[in-house]
Amino acid sequence: MRSKYKDSAVEASDNRRLSTATADGGTDNNSQSQVDMDLLRKRLSLHILQEMHEDNEISDDAFREVIADVIANDEFSMRLTLSEKRNLAASLFNKMRRLDILQPMMDDPGITEIMVNGANCIFFEKSGRLFQSSLQFKDAEYLESVITSFFSRANRPLNESSPIADLRLPDGSRANAVLPPVAPDGPIFTIRKFTGVRPDMETLIRQGFVSKEASEYLSSAVISKKTIFICGGTGSGKTTFLNTLSSFIPKNERVVTIEDSAELRLQGIDNLVRLEARLPGPDGQGSIDIGKLIRTALRMRPDRIIVGEVRGEEAAEMLHALHTGHPGSLCTGHANSCTEMLNRLATMVMAGSSLPFDAVIRQIEMGIDILVHIRRNSDGKRVVDEICQMGPSESDRLVALPVFIRKEHNLEKCITLNE
């Protein structure tokens, strides 16, 4: 039986190679070893695109039906067993609609991060620890095609002229890609999965993430509208803990959340507004940054403004909001300690403000109440490392006074000026 699809010159060459592979395979007509599967997938992919007539808007179920129809009508696919056809269909679906060989990792709820450092080097994070995968892409060119196809389906430009791109998936996961020449060793692709896990405070206490006494201190601070800044390294659990603390916000308050990429999942707050920054479009226009969203939020009559992550000049806008009758904010930032977070915050405010340094120091001193530092240990376990309260500045130096400090495995309370 001949295929119903018209072959191009390139396809005709591939068909001859497929025919040769079949002829060399002996008389057993039900063996995958007879067929060059890479060539077959390439051939079928082209036929699937022909069948769709470039219609990429069809549903996943309809797309699976197209794949099944193409396989059923392909002369070389008929040599495969039923099991091999099912595997081939799944492979084609993942290649054209998902993330190819990475899709099983995406479907594994235990994997929280996927890191692709070129075609032959793939790592993943599971239970807080990094492992190297045995999976490999065919080559750098094929990996790049998978990545660019993935981003193009979300209308995000990714090419040689725009070799760096970020993307938020519908489930809240975040993806980042870097292409050559910026990545000289091959395409780099990183996915931080949104797990959907929202542990409550009791769970975090049982896990040793935070002590009961410290949790009571922080929950009381949220209720009394203290401004809390959570800091730590990448993947330390800052956003997860912010979600947990937000559960103590009184349910009758109006809350506005502002994020680069919407990850927060606040529960039990009916009067909730979620704002998300927007990257520039293909023409370089239309971007909306965190600072603009903070200014917009001030016009929405918020009781609290929650900023998912402060990383730049928007810190000045955030402090302005705190000083205009909006205490009780929850924010996160990258730093290795509470003191370092204060110093970084001062630098960020200076970059986005014309205020003199001593005025910036006073604004931070009056605007921030409590800082929490979270760390991830070498075994992958995440813990609250220290909790500090804002102290009086000394010679224009911001001071974080320890309230709780982790000593070995215990988060112990310290003596502070407020006791």
Note down, in words, how this protein is organized.
- β4 and β5 form a beta hairpin.
- The protein folds into 3 domains: 89 residues, no CATH class; 92 residues, Beta-Lactamase (2-Layer Sandwich), CATH 3.30.450.370; 213 residues, 3-Layer(aba) Sandwich (Rossmann fold), CATH 3.40.50.300.
- It is elongated, with a radius of gyration of 27 Å.
- The protein contains 13 helices and 15 strands.
- Helices cover 35% and strands 20% of the residues.
Number of domains: 3
Largest sheet: 6 strands, antiparallel
Order of helix and strand elements from N to C terminus = HHHHHEEEHEEEHHEHEEHEHEHHEEEE
As a percent range, the share of strand residues is 15-25%
CATH topology of the largest domain: Rossmann fold
At CATH's second level, what is the architecture of the largest domain?
A: 3-Layer(aba) Sandwich
Quickly give the structural class. alpha/beta
User: Outline, from the CA principal axes?
Assistant: elongated
Short description:
With 419 residues, the protein is an alpha/beta fold. The protein has helices at residues 9-23, 37-52, 60-72, 82-97, 103-107, 140-152, 201-206, 212-223, 238-246, 290-297, 314-322, 338-351, 357-367, and strands spanning 111-117, 122-126, 129-132, 164-168, 174-178, 188-192, 228-232, 255-259, 272-276, 304-307, 330-334, 370-376, 382-391, 399-407, 410-413. The chain has 3 domains: 9-97, no CATH class; 101-192, Beta-Lactamase (2-Layer Sandwich), CATH 3.30.450; 201-413, P-loop containing nucleotide triphosphate hydrolases (Rossmann fold, 3-Layer(aba) Sandwich), CATH 3.40.50.300.
